[in-house]
Design goal:
GO terms for molecular function: ferrochelatase activity; methyltransferase activity; precorrin-2 dehydrogenase activity. Pfam families: NAD_binding_7, Sirohm_synth_M. It is an enzyme of class 1 (oxidoreductase). This is precorrin-2 dehydrogenase. Pathway: Porphyrin-containing compound metabolism; siroheme biosynthesis; sirohydrochlorin from precorrin-2: step 1/1. With 185 residues, the chain is an alpha/beta fold. The chain has three domains: 102 residues, Rossmann fold (3-Layer(aba) Sandwich), CATH 3.40.50; 31 residues; 37 residues. Helix content is 45%, strand content 16%. The protein has seven helices and seven strands; from the N terminus they run E-H-E-H-E-H-E-H-E-E-E-H-H-H. Strands 3-2-1-4-5 form a five-stranded parallel sheet, sandwiched between helices. The chain is elongated.
């Protein structure tokens, strides 16, 4: 596995499913700033209809629809439909995640903790999402909200050091010294 963070404000996302889990994923995508989300649902729950608005298509995507997306999330569909959509995604080069079906996933959504721009993720590569969630909860208790301010402070300081001509090695040492002097870690 190779961990990356994707800018969902720049990539097209297809979300496929009908129920509460699909609604939860859509809320997460919306909260993460995803701009180009298309929702496909044959029989959506009322809350999903409301959240999706004009992004909702009341059918499962065809190969052209899947091809138009960079990323596809398949949620709460029967296994045979999920497998078929995962195969279409593979054929057209769209990366896909079939929730809780590891063998059909090109990527996994990690459990995460955010404090502003600071993000810590936990992944079990699909082996135990519950364990990842439990570890995330432990990190949430440790990573207090003031870490967002600390990151902004450190970022501003780093920009000053760069403007003063610090190279990468110097930036590393100055950052460590800054963190250590403040007792952050």
């Amino acid at each position: 596995m190779f961990p990356i963070n994707l800018d969902l404000a720049r990539l097209s996302v297809a979300l496929v499913g009908n129920g509460q889990a699909t609604l939860n994923r859509l809320r997460q995508l919306d909260g993460d700033g995803a701009k180009y989300v298309t929702v496909y649902a044959e029989d959506p729950i009322a809350e999903l209809v409301d959240q999706a608005g004009d992004r909702l298509h009341r059918y499962l995507p065809n190969s052209a629809d899947v091809n138009a997306a960079a990323i596809m999330f398949i949620v709460d569909l029967p296994p045979e439909k999920a497998a078929e959509l995962a195969a279409i995604a593979k054929a057209v080069g769209t990366i896909a995640n079939v929730e809780d079906v590891k063998e059909y996933c090109d990527f996994f959504s990690p459990a995460r903790v955010t404090r502003g721009d600071l993000m810590i993720t936990v992944s079990t590569n699909g082996h135990s999402p519950r364990l990842a969630g439990r570890i995330r909860h432990a990190i949430e208790n440790w990573l207090v909200p003031k870490w967002d301010q600390r990151l902004r402070e450190l970022s501003g300081q780093r920009e000053k050091w760069k403007a003063d001509g610090a190279d990468m090695q110097q930036l590393l040492k100055m950052t460590d010294d800054y963190i250590d002097r403040r007792g952050w870690l």
